[in-house]
Amino acid sequence: MKHCLIVDDSRVVRTVARRILENLSYSVDEVEDGMTGLRACREKMPDLIFLDWNLPEMKGLEFIKSVRNQQDGRRPVILFSATERDPDEVASAFAAGADELVQKPFDVSLMKAKLESVGAMAPSDQRLSA
């Protein structure tokens, strides 16, 4: 089973993302800040990171750069989520190594489409219940 780490300061977002990802056959861990997320990645690098762009203390851009610089840091797919769609911030996220943007609010259909687009879920892996 593939493993996902959710890094988001919102308990509601973590709960929704967890439910969707577990229904898409991911095992899921969640943390509420970037520093805790980086420690989790050092202990066990996940297959997928679902990252809030606007974290307190450590912004998403810094988190992506830190993960990508770790041993094994090229491996995880990084989906970053945001409420705004500032073209400069999106471009900087992709330049730092993010794989895809998931616009908030999101649902199971959007999450599946994003995972399929980055090769983190094959179309045959689909489960629609969320």
Structure in words:
This protein has 130 residues and is an alpha/beta fold. The chain has one domain: Response regulator (Rossmann fold), CATH 3.40.50. It has helices at 11-23, 34-43, 60-68, 87-96, 108-117; strands at residues 2-7, 26-31, 48-52, 77-82, 100-103. It starts with a strand and ends in a 13-residue tail after the last helix. Mean pLDDT is 92; it is low at 125-130.
SSE topology sketch:
Elements: E1 2-7, H1 11-23, E2 26-31, H2 34-43, E3 48-52, H3 60-68, E4 77-82, H4 87-96, E5 100-103, H5 108-117
Parallel strand pairs: 1-2, 1-3, 3-4, 4-5
Helix pairs in contact: 2-3, 3-4
Structural class: alpha/beta
Strand order of the largest sheet: 2-1-3-4-5
Helix content: 40-55%
Terminal CA distance: 18 Å
Count, helices:
5
From N to C, what is the helix and strand string?
EHEHEHEHEH
CATH topology: Rossmann fold
Main sheet specs? 5 strands, parallel
* Uncertain residue ranges: 125-130
Highest CATH level, the class: Alpha Beta
CATH superfamily: Response regulator
Strand content: 15-25%
Total E-strand runs:
5
**Cα shape:** globular
Summary keywords:
130 residues, 5 strands, 5 helices, 21% strand, disordered C terminus, globular, five-stranded parallel beta sheet, single chain
Condensed summary:
The protein is of the alpha/beta class and 130 residues long. The chain has helices at 11-23, 34-43, 60-68, 87-96, 108-117; strands at residues 2-7, 26-31, 48-52, 77-82, 100-103.
